[in-house]
Structure formats: structure tokens, C-alpha cells
Amino acid sequence: MKILPDAFIQKYQELLGQEAAAFFASLKEEPVPAFRTNPLKKSQQSFSCTIPNTDWGHYGKISGKSAEHVTGLVYSQEPAAQMVGQAAAPKKGMRVLDLAAAPGGKSTHILSYLDNTGILVSNEISSKRCKSLVENIERFGAQNVVVTNESAQNLAKTFRHYFDLIVFDAPCSGEGMFRKEPEAVRNWQDSLPAKCADLQKQILREAIPMLAYGGQLVYSTCTWSPEENEEVVSWLLQEYDYLDIVELPKLNGMTEGIGLPEAARMYPHRFKGEGQFIAKIKDNRDEKAVSLPRGKSNLTREEAQLWQEFAAKHLKRPLKGLLQTFGANLYLLPDGLPDLSGLKIARNGLHLGTFKKKRFEPSFALGLALPKHDIEQSIEIDIEQFKRYVSGDIIFLTDTYPNGWYQLCVKGNGLGFAKVVGHTIKNYFPKGLRFYA
Ligand SMILES: C[S@@+](CC[C@H](N)C(=O)[O-])C[C@H]1O[C@@H](n2cnc3c(N)ncnc32)[C@H](O)[C@@H]1O
Where, in this chain's numbering, is S-adenosyl-L-methionine bound (predicted)? Predict the structure, then answer.
């Protein structure tokens, strides 16, 4: 790690008193790698080193080139960040907004809880960061998520009082990332926390109108500065008299917020992970249903027929939701969304495939999202074939299969659709994702 700024040392010396030495020593240690398994994938594996008090967390590193990563069975996320999704823990059927979502750690965790019920709007303001968010969401394989590329202010025009839960993992001074990202140390200045706090309050002000009556908000940062944490939460509670703070259980070495015991802090000398702050807030008003104009299907009769033919031949169960096209691409949106036409959309629900001159070609995303028992035809490939396939090669078959579309599976989980022609599987692994394993 880079040398800590003097002003940082002085600030945390004062704040932590006798604990400061242990805190500074922990910042010299290596970061703690970890991952979550994905309960949406039907072929599970057992991994060692479980993180206590979590449903899916494990300590350790999983290669980004492994079949487990590429099929979305695991998502790498350090242990303290895992506590944010856990604090949010949406119930099935909820409408959830992840307001600052890229690259997707909290969103994929939320999707694990929702279990393909309800709706997640996963939003990221930066279009560059949105790309990795979409990739990570697709790999995770959920059918109930839309990715938007918007400011909170614009989102609020569409989603007034809509979300049962909003997770705001705020842009922050990133002190908790000092061990993982040397740049966070380089960028730190004494004045940075106050600047970040101003932005956090502004975004919260824009986001609050999207909270449903009786809804919940989880606010988190990966920094320790009280300005961006307890002070922002206290401001929020003062500004909106219908918001209350909810007590978070202090697990695995979490500590209470400073002067705000309901909130949780994670320091690496106490909690095995990086730095994090979490607060959970509840709108204490009575729940009240709000009706918003709904989105509509826009398929032509020919498109609807081509999709139905494909679905009848290849899928064992009909997919539920709203079908919409964007150009030649067909998407499935979760039921119950308002009309999204005023928003910049990065992923309009589950990408089902593409219409090509009188035929329908299934997408990579669909083959990742569906479990093999929901698909008529699948082919299991071994690890050597997996390595060749992800590098862009075709696969030679020893058995005979009728020509057509098959879901490819590795270790039991989908790796997209591919076409069998004679004794070969043609390569449909997206060019932008190819690599040499
Ligand atoms: C801590 S990161 C989010 C990490 C993410 N939740 C995860 O778990 O993978 C904060 C995000 O806030 C976004 N951001 C920056 N300025 C913003 C703004 N004005 N409104 C909304 N989001 C913003 C950043 O682009 C960044 O992706």
C-alpha cells in the first residue's frame, strides 16, 4: 500500500484513539479476497472457507477464467461489501433499485435474494461502467432485471414512490479501498470527504421521491469518514421526518456507527475484510399503492410468431413478462414495470435474441439465464472443450446430434446457446468476451 497521507493519520488517530495503532497496522496487510456463490444457478458446487453469518459468502479467490466465473456460479466480492446486500436482504417479490450499481456487486447479491421474483432496476450513471455492469448481470443469469444508465434525478421522473427498497452504495472517498486500490490513497485529500458528502446528499435528495410509502433505504459507503457516513444519515433523518433508522445486527466484528449505534462500521483490524459503512432506513408512513403508466409490448405479428416458434421448439416452460424489441433485438421485461421510454436503458430486461431475416437467433444471455432443465436440447462440454470454446474455437463432436440450437453447459450450468452443424458446435461465445484460459 502507498504511504498514508499525514492528515489521514491524524484524523483516524483522534477518531480511534487506542485502537488507531491496530487500525493502521491492518492497512499494511493484504486485502481479503472473497466471493459469493449464485443460488440462481441450478448446478451448485461446495466451496470451503464459508464466511460466517452469510448465505453465500466464501473467503478465497476464484479465477475470472474459470468455468465457475464464466457461467456465473460465483461473483468475486470482498467480505465487507457482502454485508451491504445482506443488510438489504430484499424479500421475494419486492421492487428494488440499486442506484449506483456498477460493477454489480450489490445488484447480483440482491438478485440472489429475489430469486427471479419482483424487479431490480440496476442503475449506473457512468456509461463506461455500465458495460461491465451489464456483463456481470448477464452472467448472473437473472430474468427480472433492467439496467439503466441514468442520474437519480431522471430516474425519479419515471419511478415516483415505486421502490420497496433502494440501495445507494454511494460514490465516496474510498478510504476502505486503500489496501486494494493504491489510487484511492493517491486521490485522498483532507477536503475530499466533505465534497463527497455534498454529492451524496444531493443524490439522496433526488432519490428519496422514488421510495415507496413504507419502503426501505440502505445507504452504504466504502469509507470511514464520519462526514460521508453518520453525518449524511443524520442529515437525512433530520430532513425527512418520516424516515427512521433501523438497527443492523453487528456480525463478524462489525462495530456501531459513531454516535449512531443502529448503523454498522467495518474496520479491517476488527472485521476480516475491507472498509465499509452501512445504515438502514425506513419510511414510517403507511404503505400506499401508487399506479404508474405501464410499458407496452411492441412486437410485430411476424416477430411474435418467430419468437413463439422458437420458444415452442426449445423451451420447456413459457417465460413470463413483457416482450419488447429494441431494433432487431428481443427482450423480456419483468411484469409490473412502468413505461421506461424516457430513460437511457443499457439492458432492457433479459435479452432473448435477435430477429434475422425470417428467423430468430437466441442470445448468449438467454443460454446463461435458463437452467438446463428448462431447455429441450443441451450439450455438456468438458473443461478442455470449455477452454477451446471461450477462445473462439469450434468444438468437434464424437456423438451425433441433429443440427440446430443447443444450450451449451459446463459443470451443469449454461454457457449460452450454440448451433450444431454436422459434427461440430459452431462458436457463439461473444467476441468481446473471448480469452485464452
Ligand atoms: C461504490 S461504487 C458502486 C459499487 C457497486 N454498488 C458494486 O457493489 O459493485 C459507486 C458508483 O457511484 C457512481 N456515481 C458517481 N457519481 C454518481 C452520481 N452523481 N449519481 C449516481 N451514481 C454516481 C459511480 O460511477 C460508481 O459506479
Answer: 100-106, 124, 169
pLDDT at residue 1 greater than cutoff 80 = no
How do the domains of the chain map onto residue ranges? Answer: 6-283, 295-375, 377-437
| Residue 85 CB less than 6 A away from ligand 1 | no
Domain 295-375 has CATH 3.10.450: yes
Can you tell me which residue has the cell 485502537?
A: 19
Residue 349 CB–ligand 1 contact under 6 Å? no
Residue with CA nearest ligand 1 atom 27: 102
Instruction: Decide whether any atom of ligand 1 lies within 6 Å of the 298 Cβ.
Output: no
For the chain, give the number of residues.
437
Whose cell is 484513539? That residue is: 17
Ligand 1 atom at minimum distance from 167 CA: 6
| Coil vs helix vs strand at 207 | helix
CATH architecture group of domain 6-283: 3-Layer(aba) Sandwich (3.40)
pLDDT digits (tens, 9 = 90+) for 388-403: 999 999 999 999 999 9
Tens digits of residue pLDDT in 262-302:
999 999 999 999 999 999 999 999 988 888 999 999 999 99
Mutate to test the pocket of ligand 1, among 124, 127, 140 (most ligand atoms within 8 A of CB): 124
Q: How far is the CA of 197 from the centre of ligand 1 (A)?
A: 14
Alpha-helix runs per DSSP H in 208-341: 230-239, 301-314
- What is the DSSP track for 140-193? HT-SSEEEE---HHHHHHH-TT-EEEEEEE-----GGGTTT-HHHHHH--TTHH
- Give the residue carrying C-alpha cell 456483463: 135
CATH number of the structural domain 377-437:
2.30.130.60
Q: Note the pLDDT tens digit of each residue in 222-233.
A: 999 999 999 999
